[in-house]
Amino acid sequence: MEPGTLRITQSLNSVLERWLPEQRLFLKSERSTRFLRLRPVTQLVIVSGGAAVFGWSIIATSILAIDAISAGSVRGEMRRSQGALESRLTDLSAERDSRAAEAVAAQNRFSVALDQVSRMQSQLLESEARRRELETGIGAVQASLQEAVESHHDTESLTADAGDQAARTAELQAALDILSRELKTASAERASAEQQAEDATRIAEATRLERDLIVARNDEILTQLEDAVSVSVEPLDEMFRSVGMNPDEILRTVRRGYSGQGGPLNPVGYSSSGNAAITQGEAKAREIMITLDQVNTYRIAIEKMPLAMPVQSAYRLTSPYGRRWGRMHSGIDMAGPAGTPVYATGDGTVIWAGWQSGYGNLIKIQHELGTETRFAHLSKIRVKKGQKVSRGTQIGDMGNTGRSTGPHLHYEVRVDGRAVNPMSFIKAAQNVF
Predict the structure, then answer these.
(1) What span, in angstroms and rounded, lies between the C-alpha atoms of 97 and 221?
(2) DSSP label at residue 161
(3) Which pLDDT does position 272 carry in this prediction?
(4) What is residue 377's DSSP assignment?
(5) Residue 384 near residue 350, CB atoms below 8 Å
(6) Per residue in 289-304, pLDDT tens?
(7) How high does pLDDT run on average in the chain?
(8) Those residues with Cβ within 8 angstroms of residue 298's Cβ, 6 or more apart along the chain or in another chain
(9) Distance between CA atoms of 189 and 263, rounded to whole angstroms?
(10) From which residue to which does any coiled coil extend (predicted)?
């Protein structure tokens, strides 16, 4: 050691000796006794290192605690938001069905009004034709009467034909009276038919306006419902992508497993007049039903995925997923007291329950959709190979078996045989449940 450095060290020792006096650690053996001298500077280095380690432990524990509290609040907020969204979806769906029924009823009333207008127009045309026939008949009778009158004047002197002419005139007058009454009746019927046609036209116009309002309101409800279900699909789609799974493949797989159909098929009726607004609403409703089916399919997939926490007691995350000491660490390590309960994170079947080199006591659970979970270093295994387990079932106890430096749980998640970060599933569960 250089003289300058030696002097500085001695000065530090002399200054620190008031608070950290020199200590000696004696090491005895059968033949000799040795001692290890701890100078004040050495003690200061040891104390500083211990304080730094202790401070780092406090900071890390605080960060984990804050993260857990934040995750809990976020999960509660997501649960409340999800409940409000589902309630809003239910209300919108009920209102949509009600408006659709009102639109159908309005359409039926409109059709009935159109039929009435058509019948009134037919009656009006018939009355007009009848009136024309009666006017023609009256004209013919008047011409015949005129001829009879003229003939009567010409033959007035002929007494032999006077009786016949009077009888003919009386018959023509009676026919003229009958035709006049029929003409008045036809005219009254025509006026009544015109009034009924006007009334039916007004009713049809009012019904059309009512139908248009219902269709507009129904379209507004469908738009709100479409926006709501679209907002519901996006976080679910993002959740599957975050855990390294293809959402389209997940949807196809679930639909293959839930493809049952049945029930009688009744013919669908269509209006011959056509209605573009209702057709557009039906198309939008079909799109909403497709999106709702996608949301429901996602829900089924989520129920089958291992998204729960394997440890529900207090724990400390001692090793994350990723490279560690130059090698790949395929899971996360969650340290806690020996015997801490370990739970299944999803429904599945136990495919391994026993000892495996490096893992110690190991449990493997095969879930649907190509996912598998592993629980290693257990002190006790509480399930058997081939046993079916549900999410939240206790399957073992935390331990220190296999290649382990202390009691902890080594937890892995694999998708199609490939190890993925289990924290992705745990964080995804906080945004769903």
Answers:
(1) 10
(2) G
(3) 46
(4) E
(5) yes
(6) 777 777 777 778 788 8
(7) 77
(8) 233, 236, 237, 240, 247, 250, 251
(9) 53
(10) 169-210
Q: Which amino acid is at 52?
A: A
Residues 52 and 62: their CA atoms lie apart, in Å, by 15
Half-sphere exposure of 154 (CA within 13 A, CB side): 6
Please report where in the chains the tokens 């100078």 appear, as a residue: 39
Task: Take residue 271 and report the two structure tokens written for it.
Answer: 């209006």
Other beta carbons within 10 angstroms of residue 135's beta carbon come to: 13
Is residue 33 helix, strand or coil? Answer: strand
Helix 276-304 × helix 247-257 angle, to 10°: 90
Place of tokens 């004696």: 26
Q: What is the pLDDT of residues 326-367, one digit of tens each?
A: 788 889 999 999 999 999 999 999 999 999 998 999 999 999
Can you point out the beta strands (E) in 330-424? 332-335, 341-343, 348-356, 360-366, 371-381, 388-389, 394-398, 408-415, 418-420
Alpha-carbon dihedral sign for residues 67, 73, 76, 80? negative
171 is written with which tokens? Answer: 């018959």
Residue found by looking up tokens 């209300």 in the block: 91
First to last CA, the chain: 65
Angle between the N-to-C axes of helices 247-257 and 162-242, in degrees from 0 to 180, rounded to the nearest 10 = 120
Q: Which residue has the tokens 């959740």?
A: 239
Instruction: Give the separation between CA 16 and CA 235, rounded to whole angstroms.
Output: 61
| 316-431, CATH topology level | Glucose Permease (Domain IIA) (2.70.70)
333 and 319 in contact (C-beta within 8 Å)?
A: yes
**C-beta of residue 229 within 8 angstroms of C-beta of residue 399:** no
